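Hey, resending since the last one bounced:
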Amino acid sequence: MQLRRAAVLGGGPGGLYAARLLKLAYPACDVVVHEQGDPDTTFGFGVGLAAGTQRKLAAADPDTLRDLVAAGRRHDMTMRVGGRVARVRNDRLIGIARTELLAVLRQHAEKAGVRLEFGARRTADELDADIVLAADGVSSATRESGPFGGRIESGRGLYLWCGTDFALTDAVFAPVRTEHGVFVTHAYPYSGGRSTFLIETDEDTWRRAGFDSSTEATPVDASDEKSLRYLENVFAEQLRGRRLIGNRTRWLRFRTVRCDTWSAGRTVLLGDAAHTAHFSIGSGTKLAMEDAIGLVEALREEPDRAAAFARYETVRRPAVERLQELARRSRLWWESFPSRLHLPVERLMVAYMSRAGNVPLDRFAATSPDVVGAALEQFAGGPGPADPAAVTDWVLRHGTGRGGGNLVTIDEAPTDPWDGTGDAVVARARRAFDDGAEGFLFTGPPGRSALLTRLDLAERVRTEVGGPVVVEGPAALRDDLAAGLVSGRTDLVTLVNDPAGNPGRNS
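The structure tokens again:
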């Protein structure tokens, strides 16, 4: 389609990148970015660009990617629990300061001929443009005032973004048990002298520490200094005695945004305005920049605006919804993280990598043989196979069976194993255990989503009530069952044939 004028609401990564790609695709088009904030003021610390996103940026705009990579910092990943460390190579992941990211994207947008206007709040209705790209963030005024059918779901756990003034060697996942409960940090370097420290906890711990009061007392443009000073002591080992730095830092609950439609008339939503995915697996920067690529491709290939917007959503929505589902499972795992601290760090790392069903055990074994090898020995009491391709079969040989004794069958399938329905299952299991049940058999629908949820529910009963616990699942999903065994989600598994031909892990 032809474009004369295009307006972008929001000067974040998605808006700036979309503006550049639009100008490159339509050199004669007048492309303007409207950002209500000041260009020298940004919030947040570092963001991550995964390998898959880098490949897509390389195909769409290699010049911009080159400068982003040069400004970023590669790192591996470690988990530290109880004095033990598990390390996973992940140096294709780049951490980059949000300030640097925006500076590079602004520079490349202006180089392409995009005009940037700062300091004024604009709305889609007042802009003279053929199309308006609303990249105005998770609190998008465009979405909230338009016919997009926006819905927001808040998580149970609480998190706090802060930083520190030195660069960690690796990304670090580290839980610390305090007098109030467990806090866990996800920290990673993003420049030569800076690291992001993201800290999570559950609501009970948050309240016991008095952070409900400090959050309420913290103005929206300030940082929660009470929390920062307390957490400096909690994570003194990881911080090496340094201070935590705030930047409008306060406790928040993650908000998952979904919309019935991403466009209306000449306006189309982009990035967090249209959808969000929990930070533990889905990056808002990743989704927004990939949205920009998909939108501009659709505009170039379709004859008119309506067809282009429809194509953009048709192509992007399945990928976004898949990532949102992975992110939902990851969020639930992190919100229940303290219940797993009894696991050796290597098995906990396997549990972390397989938490959303996105990393098969054999693939993880191929990239991190030391971690998986130790986890297999902890699981079965002896060394596992040298060939990563043989890991799943080996695990199932050691963990397939129905056990003995009086097993109570549980066939509930809640969407969230930690919600009220999950609470009721745990309560019934506890009563059955007190009445003489010797364990539990979890059965249910053969679909993959149902099996992953069944494994999570079984893990909760195994941890909170006792076992043995057996999970039944289709043979086609043997990879997920094997990962569940090594991760401590179940004691045994039973493979059944699925007459409906349930698809495997790539579904």
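Confidence is low (pLDDT under 50) at residues 502-507.

Sorry for the duplicate.
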